[in-house]
Amino acid sequence: MFSHFQDLGRNLSSEAQSFLDDAKNHLDNVVDIAASGHLVDQARIRALQAAAMIKSPPRPETLTGSGASARLGERVADRGTTRAMIVTTAGLQKRGTLDALLGALSDRGVEAVVYDKVEPDPGYQIILDGVQQYKDNNCDAVIAVGGGSAIDAAKAIVACYSNDKTPSELVGFMKVRKQVVPFSAVPTTAGTGSEVTVASVVTDPEKNAKYSIVSLKIVPSLVALDPDLTLTLPPAITAASGLDALTHAVESYVSPIKTEESADLSLRAAATIAENLPKAYEDGQDRKVREELAMASFEAGLAFTRAGVGYVHAIAHQLGGMYHMVHGEANAILMPHVMDFYKPKAKADLASLARALGAGSEDESEDQLADAFIAKLLELNAALDIPKTAAPLREEDIPEIAERALKEADGNYPVPRYMEQADCEAILRKILPDQT
Ligand SMILES: [Fe+2]
Hints:
Radius of gyration: 21 Å
CATH topology of the largest domain: Dehydroquinate synthase-like, alpha domain
Strand order of the largest sheet: 1-9-6-4-2-3
Shape: globular
Oligomer: single chain
Strand content: 5-15%
Bound molecules: fe (ii) ion
């Protein structure tokens, strides 16, 4: 995903704005933040936190375990659906990923219209064509099946159809006014967490830019986490998507706006991923391991919906945009360095993550445990054949990447320690090829 919360800070709703003054009064560490020029950023983040407290993101009803996608089909039928549009990619249908779901719908007399034109980074036209197909076929429900792109496209389709708007009219914060049509999701990778988040990332091909539609209304109401559908994921995709989920868990845990609930979800997801991802990488056929990872990805998605992501995502998005690096891999390469940067302000949290992952030992200091957690991240990367450097990164691009990353993060992402341009550039130089 691109910037889950990119538009939040720039398009504060009046509800959130009204919390700005209050939020300023609750700033932690004001002197330090003011000295670094991030007072307004921090106030915006606090305002968003306050707004989020008022209206928590809805949590989808979840079906889990082998056969969950067929059970989702049954549930959709039981809800009185007559014609469901499946939003997916052409490859998944060919591989038979939809078979169990389509069978369950058909057995219960629900007609299925398959819209399989979704591509990675779905553009406006894919969304508009999907809306047209939904109308032409008189559908009365949408089921997304796929990775982040399919689910994000489906979110945009239901939002545009139900509100009679184009994607560009809905880009931004809370612009989806009307309730959307019944909407379910079946994620087929354990990583993006899109099945549970409030954001849909859509691409404007004219501007070659990605934007987020952010709304509580586009969270699916029903989700199936079916390990059967992830058994054939290749090891490299398993590793990258799992590490994306781990990044969601870690970034949401070190967030200054985490809640007790989001912190529990983050820690549990991080521990589950660290334990199970190397197993899934070695043997993709283990259903139990796949199920654990699907649930952990879902929980990490819930956690970052509440507590946000941080600089790992902000920088990784630029590497994705500029060089088309795989999102999860870019996150994984960056995460140890960003955590090391956070360390002076996040020792206790990094130590808690170390304890959750079984890194270090109980008699060690917080400082040592924080280092043990960072070492554990590097160890995981090595076990999953993640390189230490970003192969396409070029020295001459570093200032622009850093500038764009800080623009994305500042005021939008809650982070324990703010970066300046030089800090961000220094991190990027650490992952330059031929320098490690
Ligand atoms: Fe991500």
